[in-house]
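In the lab's daily routine, each protein ends up as an entry in a very long ledger. A line of letters takes care of the sequence, but it says nothing directly about the fold. The fold becomes a row of whole numbers, each drawn from a learned catalogue of backbone shapes. The protein below has been through that process, and both of its lines are reproduced in full:
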Amino acid sequence: MDYFNQYLFNLIYGLSNRNFFLDDFGVFCAQDFLYILILLFLILVFKEKGTRKKLFFFSEALISVIVSRGIITELIRLFYHHLRPSFALNIVPLINESGYSFPSGHATFLFTLSMTVFFYNKKWGIWFLILSLINGIARIYVGVHWPLDILGGILLGTITAFIIHLLLNKSRKAIFIKEPVAE
């Protein structure tokens, strides 16, 4: 598996440092997509009808992101020390990152957010997932992540969002399904 991971990394990272415009686009996708997707998420939250639905949508995403990115990712990195490609291969990445690389914090965050959006709005959720995947590929392109770092973040974010969504299902139904009023 390590051979395949390095092979894919070399294939994607090998395209960098050849074209100024492509490198700039790769850096933009690797760094700025996160902020664009957060802004789009906030717009989607505010477009929801009803204060309760807005609050629940936002809260579900926030809880999911805190659990996946803030807790699980950091616990994994505390016990599993996987060097970034720039340190392992002694290459100069297009952007600077520090710390351990597995799982990708960006991929974990974005796929958690994307899956939560998908649960509420399938059409926008698919766009979020596509843009999150582009961010993951860009993180490899700029030399700060291995392909398995991205895959780990995708799985962690997706599974966490799904579990949180299931755990909140009963609360969601209680909030959104109005009980008949007794006369």
The domain at 2-176 is CATH 1.20.144.10 (Vanadium-containing Chloroperoxidase; domain 1).
